[in-house]
Amino acid sequence: xxxxxxxxxxxxxxxxxxxxxxxxxxxxxxxxxxxxxxxxxxxxxxxxxxxxxxxxxxxxxxxxxxxxxxxxxxxxxxxxxxxxxxxxxxxxxxxxxxxxxxxxxxxxxxxxxxxxxxxxxxxxxxxxxxxxxxxxxxxxxxxxxxxxxxxxxxxxxxxxxxxxxxxxxxxxxxxxxxxxxxxxxxxxxxxxxxxxxxxxxxxxxxxxxxxxxxxxxxxxxxxxxxxxxxxxxxxxxxxxxxxxxx
Amino acid sequence: xxxxxxxxxxxxxxxxxxxxxxxxxxxxxxxxxxxxxxxxxxxxxxxxxxxxxxxxxxxxxxxxxxxxxxxxxxxxxxxxxxxxxxxxxxxxxxxxxxxxxxxxxxxxxxxxxxxxxxxx
Lengths: 246, 120
Fold this sequence. Notes:
heterodimer; A: about 250 residues; mainly alpha; 2 domains; B: about 120 residues; Helix Hairpins
């Protein structure tokens, strides 16, 4: 075919990559001096030990189920994402925002053909949207107790809006999406500034004395996850609207 | 078991690299880049793997006693970040592909005949 490279080039590329791959694999499983990734390293030998035992601030602190601790989220991945490494997450939200901004500049604004939706999709869309919004809400409210959180919840909520876009219904205008995005983005950082004035460090948790395992626990984690969910949902819905511009 | 993870993630990465090097269709290149990203995410998660580990979620007093059996939560948190960024960059790449299609009237990255004729 004219559009694809010749068979010879394909074979040469395959052979070169095969040799490089075998070389890297043999280095990865090599047995020499030092720590290897194939060694059975438990989290007790890593920084994760502090996060699992929740004793980052005080070395000797312990905690019980139903008691209080320095971070009361039952899901430890969540406590790493939204408490111990919150700077990472907020800067990631900024990176996502800049990507979507660049996307909005780059995508050409022209007329595109829109396929008319079938009757089945048209009838089922409201029911599907309702279910997806419910699951999305559950995911970010329970982000600190069970697997889930703001980013998956945002993706699920934006999928509900995608269903509306596919059926040609304008469920929400692009202007209100931009307003939601701006409000949530500003609130995340203003909570950070509030906690700076209350506790003395940026993004530090100031809701104390809640119990591990409760629905209302984890301090600021559910608030941040709710804000992140709506921000991600607004940004992703923006992509769908841009791709499906009339 | 970690060797299986390393082997599978390395093969995913090199399948993606092969696609990037040999394909000329822009959409295929973007899909290949996504395959590389999946391989890297798998490698990152496998760094936290331990034999017979349990999920790092507290459910009762019993799970607090088993803290040293839990898998490492830090790589999982990092992969969560990288998946979302991957989605944003893929959307950006697709927008660039649409723009390329409009300006060059082709989705293939071959040089057009005019550009070839202009040759140095």
